[in-house]
Design brief:
By secondary structure, the chain is mostly helical. The protein is about 70% helix and about 0% strand. α7 packs across α9. The longest helix is centred in the C-terminal third of the chain and has 24 residues. It is globular, with a radius of gyration of 17 Å.
Length: about 180
């Protein structure tokens, strides 16, 4: 049980009930991750908008984004997020469990195209040692066809994942 009081779908009212209905329509149920945000319906709405933005991203693929989330969550030891995104890669992108495990050990081995691996590596560098990112790093990605907006969006995605991991770990989210 989380350390803060959450609101179950059957007890939700008002704006929270509306947001839960959207989540249920999209995913079939309201997971513990959404319920943890129930204490602040406005932040849950913002989180949903954030998710929708990346679900429809024109250049950052679902496997790349899930890989970013796994690598960020691995550093934070957020098992809920690691498991959730591993499931996405296996069930939606056709990865094997062994491919996910190999990526977690060595991100260069990710089951992604070369240009997406390069983006993944830059994002990991930004999360772990942001001050070490330099113009050459960005130029390398630009030469591979990534725009500055793509690079910014990928790093933003990772930083939001880091914040989410901290929230989930602080309040002790439970696996579904």
């Amino acid at each position: 049980m989380p350390l803060i009081q959450t609101i179950a779908p059957e007890n939700a009212t008002g704006e929270l009930a509306k947001i839960y209905k959207v989540i249920e329509t999209m995913r079939g149920s309201v997971g513990n991750n959404a319920q943890l945000f129930s204490v602040s319906p406005e932040l849950l709405r913002q989180q949903m908008d954030f998710i929708k933005y990346y679900m429809n991203h024109p250049t950052l693929s679902m496997p790349l984004l899930a890989a970013i989330r796994i690598m960020v969550s691995s550093g934070e030891e957020c098992q809920f997020c690691i498991d959730y995104n591993t499931g996405m890669l296996i069930n939606m992108a056709g990865w094997t469990f062994d491919q996910v495990a190999a990526m977690r050990k060595d991100p260069k081995s990710a089951n992604l195209p070369e240009r997406e691996i390069a983006m993944l590596l830059l994002v990991i560098k930004a999360i772990r040692i942001a001050h070490s990112v330099n113009a050459d790093d960005l130029d390398t990605l630009r030469e591979m066809g990534w725009s500055d907006a793509d690079i910014f969006d990928a790093v933003n995605h990772a930083t939001r994942m880091l914040a989410t991991d901290i929230i989930f770990n602080t309040f002790k989210i439970e696996n579904n």
